[in-house]
Amino acid sequence: LCYHGWFGPDCQYQCHCAGSAPCDKHDGSCSSGCHQDWFGPACQYARMGFTVNGTFSSSWLTDNKDNLNRENLRSVTVTLDTPIPLTWLRVVVSDAVHLSTVKISYWNQRTYKDCPESNTAKIDRVTMDISCPTEYPVTSVTLSGRGVVFLCSLYISAGRNVALKQRAEQSSWLSIDLRDRWWAEYAVDGRIPNDTHESNRLTCSHTALQDKSPWWQVSFPQPVEITRFILENRRDCCQERLKKFSLTVYPVTDSYKPITHRGSDEVKTTYSVVPSPRISFPVTQVKITEGLSRERLVVLCEVFIFGEINCLSNRFGLRCERECNCVNQTSCFVHNGGCPSGCAPGYTGEDCSEG
């Protein structure tokens, strides 16, 4: 059995239920609903924060309530807290008749574009997912059409943490005594330390002091598509060691060249890296090497890599373990098996699995 807060065949996925309630140990479902920062299948998808432009309440599209009079409203724009490339969005309305009349467009500091109306799939009578991948980070999203009057909730996917519990390695490890070893896997264990040394040594990776070419890396058994990275620094001391880190992503084939991103020169508790344009190839490995501090060290307390697994066109699921059931054997959404073309004859439901 998995420890509290974890689920899956190898207990490799983290529960994200409202009120820290336990999730189903098999499929991760939450009887209490998802924590407000997460949504989607098994509550595994990070919900990008945003601000509703204008005079509307900031909680209007995030509190799952429909208590405003918006009879004359024809569009609403939200500004993302952090510009990221879009992947998919979810819209919930109060009136099922008007679900398909909600249109979505976006601004990416270069141009204003519409999301394709053909790339949508209904989750239920009042909920719709929209696939809208963009090459560059998006700063704002606009919803328009008659259905805006009936809007209840908007979810913008920031991806799921594909690095969690994956195979991590490092060139060496700091070992003060048998109890105090800063292992590579600590950086993908899903835990962020507090400001005590005891907490940091139990959940941070750290290369050895005498290592001349330190590095840390995580590898994926199946290629992943990456949207952004978040690196959590130590909380107890020594944060300057991570500044100007070097982060390199390696493609699944030689058809593409590895891409390297250099971290900020500022000393930060949390570093965010959003590639622009987005990484155009599936990734098999991410490697982080030391920054430009006088101490040659790689110290990481958590590495979040948000994105999605790269499934074959007829597969979906957290491990691509399920088969799409779309009409004419067309592809489905990787995150939930939804079919823009509709379910194959004899199938219904969010993932077209109900026969």
Description:
- Residues 159-310 form the Fucolectin tachylectin-4 pentraxin-1 domain.
- Keywords: Calcium, Disulfide bond, Metal-binding.
- By secondary structure, this protein is mostly beta strands.
- It has four domains: 1-35, no CATH class; 50-158, Galactose-binding domain-like (Jelly Rolls, Sandwich); 167-309, Galactose-binding domain-like (Jelly Rolls, Sandwich), CATH 2.60.120; 313-355, no CATH class.
- It contains one helix and 27 strands.
- The protein has one helix at 197-201, and strands spanning 6-7, 13-14, 38-39, 45-46, 50-52, 75-84, 88-93, 103-107, 112-114, 120-124, 127-131, 138-144, 151-156, 160-161, 167-170, 175-177, 180-181, 205-206, 215-232, 246-251, 259-262, 270-273, 283-289, 299-300, 302-309, 315-316, 322-323.
- The longest helix is centred in the middle third of the chain and has 5 residues, at 197-201.
- The relative contact order is 0.13.
Question: Can you tell me the CATH class of the largest domain?
Answer: Mainly Beta
Q: Can you name the CATH architecture of the largest domain?
A: Sandwich
Superfamily (CATH H level) name of the largest domain: Galactose-binding domain-like
Per DSSP, what share of the residues sits in E-state strands of 2 or more residues?
25-35%
Structural class: mainly beta
H-E order: EEEEEEEEEEEEEEEEEHEEEEEEEEEE
CATH fold call of the largest domain: Jelly Rolls
Total number of β-strand segments?
A: 27
What Rg is obtained from the alpha carbons, in whole angstroms?
A: 21 Å
This entry's quaternary arrangement is single chain
* Cα separation of the termini: 31 Å
Task: Tell me, briefly, the overall form.
Answer: globular
Describe the main β-sheet briefly.
Answer: 8 strands, antiparallel
Low-pLDDT stretches are none
Total count of domains: 4
Helix content: under 10%
- Average residue-wise pLDDT: 92
Count of alpha/pi helices = 1
